[in-house]
Design a protein that fits this description.
- This protein is of the alpha+beta class.
- The protein folds into two domains: 68 residues; 190 residues, Sandwich (Jelly Rolls).
- The strands form two sheets. Strands 1, 3, 4, 6, 9, 10, 11 and 13 form an eight-stranded antiparallel sheet that branches. A five-stranded antiparallel sheet has the order 2-5-12-7-8.
- Strand 3 and strand 4 form a beta hairpin.
């Protein structure tokens, strides 16, 4: 199934679409008489995508045949709408159907099988309509090779979120093109301000779980259960400590903001998001 997920991530790449469709059919469909192929809940949406993009009639017939074999009750992979059980106080940021509640680059992202998807030939800055001050944000994301995006927090709708607000990197750290980045440019880092610990991303094509807590001047980022950033912004704000890029508050006035929008900051790569939920914290409240 992991192999199918990986090739499916290339179905939106026109240069690799044909080979990705052929690989998906080879993985998902029966190859021998007694072989039933893959019939899990994630297979149907991928086969439907193959049918939509392939020009090969034989591949289309095989995909359609396997699609008919998948039990009608099988549900897709996708994003659970609303908070997960056991997460009191969390509310969903994405309804799984459309861009309601979001502003900005709404054409650069789509609702796809319950997922929020940043398009390879799309992206841009997509923001929540609502502003948030102190909160716990939880979401899951799946990278494609070389993917680059960002999570904006406490950001205004105008200006570069990495400076006018804060940007937490969303990045395929393993891509060769990023080998020479500065430490504060890798996944999870508060861009230009605080570098994140590396080594906690799952392999490309697998789902990652991230939690971001913004409480006053403290920003904490957990990735797949590991704390990769735990930073107090106060020393940067007060001038007692330099930001990682040396620019300080003059370059990063967003550090002074106490509220703002949450956003995804796409840079021309497909990334899938699901289970976006948030819990607002009251002044003086601790992390739950």
């Amino acid at each position: 199934l992991e192999a199918l997920r990986l090739v499916a991530s290339y179905l939106d790449d026109r240069g690799l679409q044909a080979s990705a469709a052929a690989s998906a059919v080879r993985i998902a469909c029966p190859q021998r008489a007694r072989d039933k192929g893959l019939r899990g809940p994630e297979v149907g949406p991928i086969l439907k995508k193959v049918i939509a993009v392939t020009r090969d009639g034989n591949l289309r017939k095989k995909a359609e045949a396997q699609l008919r074999r998948i039990p009608k009750g099988a549900k897709g992979p996708q994003g659970e709408v609303g908070a997960k059980g056991g997460e009191e106080g969390f509310v969903s940021l994405f309804n799984g159907k459309d861009m309601a509640g979001w502003v900005g680059a709404v054409k650069g992202y789509v609702a796809e099988n319950g997922l929020l998807v940043c398009l390879k030939k799309g992206g841009g800055n997509l923001f929540t309509e609502k502003e948030y001050a102190d909160f716990i944000l939880r979401f899951e994301f799946k990278l494609t090779p070389g993917a680059n995006n960002g999570l904006g927090i406490r950001t205004p709708l105008r200006g570069n979120p990495a400076y006018a607000g804060m940007e937490l990197q969303i990045l395929d750290n393993t891509a060769k093109r990023y080998a020479k980045l500065r430490p504060y440019q890798f996944h999870g880092s508060i861009y230009g301000v605080v570098p994140a610990k590396r080594g906690h991303l799952k392999p490309v094509g697998e789902w990652n779980a991230q939690e971001v807590t913004a409480k006053g001047t403290r920003i904490t980022v957990k990735l797949n259960g590991a704390t990769i950033v735990d930073a107090d912004l106060a020393p940067f704000i007060n001038g007692e400590k330099k930001t990682a890029d040396g620019g300080g508050v003059k370059r990063h006035p967003g550090l002074l903001r106490k509220t703002g929008h949450i956003g995804f900051l796409g840079h021309g790569a497909r990334i899938e998001f699901r289970n976006l939920r948030i819990k607002e914290l009251q002044p003086g409240a601790g992390e739950m």
